Amino acid sequence: MVSFGARRMHPAITPMIERSAYLGGCDGVTINVAAEALGIPASGTTPHALVLVLGSTEEAAKAFDEAMPQEIPRTIIIDTFDDEKFGALIAARAIPDSIYAIRMDTPGNRRGDFLDLMREVRWELDRHGFGHVRIFASGGMDVDYILHLNPVCDAYGVGGYIASAPMVDYSLDIVEVNGEDRSKRGKRGGRKRLLELDDGTRKVLPANAPQPEGARDAQRPIEEASGDGDIHALRERVLAQLATGVFVL
């Protein structure tokens, strides 16, 4: 199973990224605003932030288990404070009747042999009666790494590597607050329009600038951009084409 999670994304751009990931075959998405906007299921795990705020893996697991609807799998992150094998046991013992999986998001500079580390966690879970608890991995998951971890890992959280194209770096900045221009130094202030010209080029202009002759707005609501609409039907079409290797636009 592969799910997509975009972190630190602006709500205005996230649904487009999540939509593409879901259409392309991901089993789920993690951003609530995207899931609600697109009418698709959200799924996720406990974040590091919850453990940091509550102070321990045990308290975070119990709080998540108490607050989340029963249909949400209890996947608990284990490496905020603890060694992975001990964190996995702490999480499993905290909610033994409902835990579904543990998530390993170990920083790259502490991973060493990540596959061997997972085998150690798997061993300890099995040895202590938690053979049903699955292992979920996240952080720098590209195709080769997923294939490398597959012998032990059950599911993956994939971020930037979801795209096969080179990453395009960008930032999103506040340029207007309640109709008032407000921007930080080095940024072009004020609301803007993205226009497409007759020759196919695009141009960014202030929102109150005169519109060049023949230019048209290039920005459209995501509902209009989605073409034939039903995201679930579109997803089935994409998955069918992936299975046959024949792609039709």
Q: Would you write up a description of this structure?
A:
This protein is an alpha/beta fold. The strands form three sheets. The chain has a six-stranded parallel β-sheet. The protein has helices at 14-23, 32-38, 48-54, 57-67, 84-94, 108-111, 114-127, 143-149, 222-225, 231-244; strands at 2-4, 28-29, 74-77, 99-104, 134-138, 155-158, 176-177, 180-181, 192-196, 202-206, 216-217. It starts with a strand and ends in a 5-residue tail after the last helix. The protein is 36% helix and 16% strand. The protein is built from ten helices and eleven strands. The longest helix is centred in the middle third of the chain and has 14 residues, at 114-127. 24% of the residues are buried. Among the domains are: 44-162, TIM Barrel, CATH 3.20.20.70; 179-218, no CATH class.
Biggest beta-sheet profile: 6 strands, parallel
So, CATH architecture of the domain at 44-162? Answer: Alpha-Beta Barrel
Intertermini distance: 26 Å
Q: Calculate Rg over CA atoms.
A: 22 Å
Q: What is the string of helix and strand elements? A: EHEHHHEHEHHEHEEEEEEHH
Low-confidence stretches: 6-13
CATH topology of the domain at 44-162: TIM Barrel
Strand order of the largest sheet: 2-1-6-5-4-3
